Amino acid sequence: MKEQLKRRTKIFAHNCVKITELLPNTYLANHIKMQLIRCSTSVAANYRATCVAQSKPSFIAKISIVIEEIDESNFWLEFALDENLIRKDKIESLLKESSELTAIFMASRKTASINNK
């Protein structure tokens, strides 16, 4: 499961970076591009950090960062859609993946928190 999630988060980051190429060259779109690239790649990088966490509290802290970054990625995707900078059909799969990953990471944090008491 760990390797599968490493792969999924990396693919998510790659796909978010690729989707930014479809956004127009405007001030707002350029801001969204940079934010989406930053937070989506952070999901993948920080998930890898959870895999090498040296303690339960460290794991919980790191997975919490992953949750924040995947949620922020979702925000920027939705924002681009709300501003009519991209068509929904272009980002539907990314929105679905971010929701699925959020659910997985939330469940993982909950399990780790319960087992840490």
Can you offer a commentary on this structure?
The chain is mostly helical. It has one domain: 23S rRNA-intervening sequence (de novo design (two linked rop proteins)), CATH 1.20.1440.60. 85% of the residues lie in helices and 0% in strands. It has four helices and no strands. The longest helix has 28 residues. The chain is elongated and about 50 Å long. This is Four helix bundle protein. InterPro entries: 23S_rRNA-intervening_sequence, 23S_rRNA_IVS_sf. It holds the Pfam family 23S_rRNA_IVP.
Write the layout of secondary structure elements.
Elements: H1 2-20, H2 27-51, H3 56-82, H4 88-115
Helix pairs in contact: 1-2, 1-4, 2-3, 3-4
Protein name: Four helix bundle protein
InterPro entries: 23S_rRNA-intervening_sequence, 23S_rRNA_IVS_sf
- Shape from CA axes? elongated
Order of helices and strands: HHHH
Q: Radius of gyration from the CA trace?
A: 15 Å
Summed up, the domain count is: 1
Largest sheet: none
What is the count of helical runs? 4
Low-confidence segments: none
CA(first)-CA(last) distance? 24 Å
**How many beta-strand runs?**
0
**Amount of helix:** over 70%
Regarding CATH, which class?
Mainly Alpha
